[in-house]
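Fill-in record for Major facilitator superfamily (MFS) profile domain-containing protein.
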Amino acid sequence: MFGKRDKTQTTKNEKLEPSTVTDKESSHTEANLSSGDGHIHPELSTKEGEQSGLQEDADKQYPSGGKLALIMTAVCATVFLVALDRTIIATAVPRITTDFHSLDHIIWYASAYLITSCGTQLLWGRIFTFYSTKMVFLAAIVVFEVGSVICGAAPTSVAFIIGRAIAGMGSAGIFSGSTVILTHILPLQKRPMYVGLMGSMFGISSVVGPLMGGAFTDRATWRWCFYINLPIGGVVLAVLILFLHVSHEKIGDITMSRRIMQLDPFGTLVFLPGVICFLLALQWGGNTYAWSDARIIVLFVVSGVLLVAFVGIQIWRQEDATIPPRIAKQRSVAFGSVFSMCIGSGLVSVLYCLPIWFQAVKGTTAVQSGIDTIPMVLALVVGAIISGATITRTGYYVPWMFVSAILMSTGSGLMTTFKVDTGHSAWIGYQVLFGLGLGMGMQQPSLAAQTVLAQKDVSIGIALMFFTQSLGGAVFSSVGQSVFVNHLGKELPAVSGINIEEILAAGATGLSRVVPTDKLAEVLVVYNHALRNAFIVAVTISCLMVLPASGMEWLTIKKDEVMKDDVEKEAIKKDDVEKEDVEKEDVSRPAA
């Protein structure tokens, strides 16, 4: 009997039929799923979700060849446009404020985009769960393009800010939707390489964005920073409409009110203002207002109350929640979201400090500082490709999370040794180490969500990973800035014969204009020391990444190994049950 086979009897050459387990388990899963209203039963386990995804991979027909190449090119182009939109504005802002005479609005040009992108991320994940992936993704692209049109044609600063807010909403749907699409066009075993390729778009855009922004602003008009999205977006829409075909499991005929309730309106109405208040406090604190200002304190308090209420609503709503508790409590999802937050925090901390170090200490221009960060970006791309290719071959992604933590902490740790006279070989090498770590760890949380969750839940898991990554970046950009400014304010008074207020107002590129020549060397040493302290933030976060990595489940994305393991476990379980039955019979049998 198959049930009596010992685990050691299963040899490598034996053919293991997936149906041995999956046929039985599928009936159990269907019973759990069939609640009549499209809900997934809360007791769906990690293993069932993983098996469900693997069985779907075995049954699905995926695009290949030229069709797959076209779809992937279109998706990567969309991700690149959205990532570019975050960075291209950096070098265009001075000209925009001049044209609109709106220096007091400058903080909103970045904040409006960040707030709507971060605030609507989880909502998009919920929408992808209940509606066609293709149609929702196309809608997200259209929203992003509408925002770009408004920004490019904006007659006033207020109109420009509205355009940035709309574009931010679209970007949130594109971020999570691009990864959800991968789950429909590629089997799990082949995704890591493509996920790494898609993730590298973020790194490339961080260098290309400021360069393109400067080129458009100087040689044409800053409005082309946004018009450039239109022709590329149009081509992407055409390709996806013609070639992307994904199946969508219809829930059935339900009322409009029920559809609305499935999107968790109660949670959304509490979550959005909570995130907005929190991000506004981070954006304004230390810039527009002091951290001790009553307005900042009120924003933090209100955001705290609203976000606590959001958690309560999620517990109350269960399967109708934006993030069903069973998903949030899933081990790999929970620890993966923390790891994702650390990745975003470390990345933004370094991206904040490094350009300032180049511009202030090394005396480069804003454009040149972008060029000087190319080593980190190239290393990020290489790291993503190496880890993706290796995971495709071995199946295990968790080890790369540890490698990521080690390389990021080493690279950022070496950056704390920067001196005014640090040479090219040093700052290039340190960036390479940090960039490799980023590339090797950035995509692993979303890959974990795809592995442990059933297809229906994947969009929520991915949206949660992107949200925590964005939130971590938003929080620690403010933390890094505060550490830098505080140390600068404490150490500058030690330099005599300078005007501290003028130095702080001049910014990184204006030091030579406001500092006497004989005092410039001393001020640069102070600047360098303050930035070294800010780099410590990135070191701390990178070291802490080991903790969530340690909490991850060591699972494989390779179907054959999972199926084999499940068959062996089922055999052992049956054998144990039969042994227990025999023992019970022996105990109950009357003595002779």
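KEY FINDING: The two ends are 31 Å apart (CA to CA).
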